[in-house]
Amino acid sequence: MKERKVKNMSREKQLKVKRLIDVMFSLFIIIPFLPIWILIAIVIKLTSKGPILFLQDRPGKNKSIFKIFKFRTMKPGSEKMIKGVEVMKDDDRITSIGKFLRRTKIDEIPQVVNVLKGDMSLVGPRPERVNSLKDYDKEISKRLRMRPGMTGLAQVNGNIYLTLEDRYKLDVYYVENFSLKLDAIILFKTFGVVLFGEDSFVERNGSTKS
What backbone phi and psi angles, to 5 degrees, belong to 59? Predict the structure, then answer.
């Protein structure tokens, strides 16, 4: 019992450090890179009709609903999605500039505002659509015990090439085994995903690279 209490305290301290890192990183991205944000917004507006940002309700920690921010990468009217079916890189609903933004993950950058607000974290299970909650069982619901992340364990292990079930398993594993070390590994691998693409982290037989 005593050992378990010490372990829990250690986790709590790591969560506090995690939040501090989130705030510091968000401020670092928002303030110095604001001119780049403006440039991206102009390019989006000039190359396709529709709003600059894509906003959508998503469930956060303990099912609290928040509005997620993304640079819009798809044509207007393309928001409807099928549960468990990801938007692939060759989807014809993606705009010309959207392909670049999604490939480099730049479309996710506005979520640093969500991170600064405390809706999200740099690392955690990716937030799904609200209507997905009705299909959660007790095991899958564990992914809601932490703030959702801009990147996560599933995102650096194949992501869109994984089944929904496998992504859930990785999310739950992250929540149950959280540590700052694991966060650091995920962030490091995220740079690899940005540089080489998600398909570089999937074996030919469909399994993910460790």
Answer: -85, 130
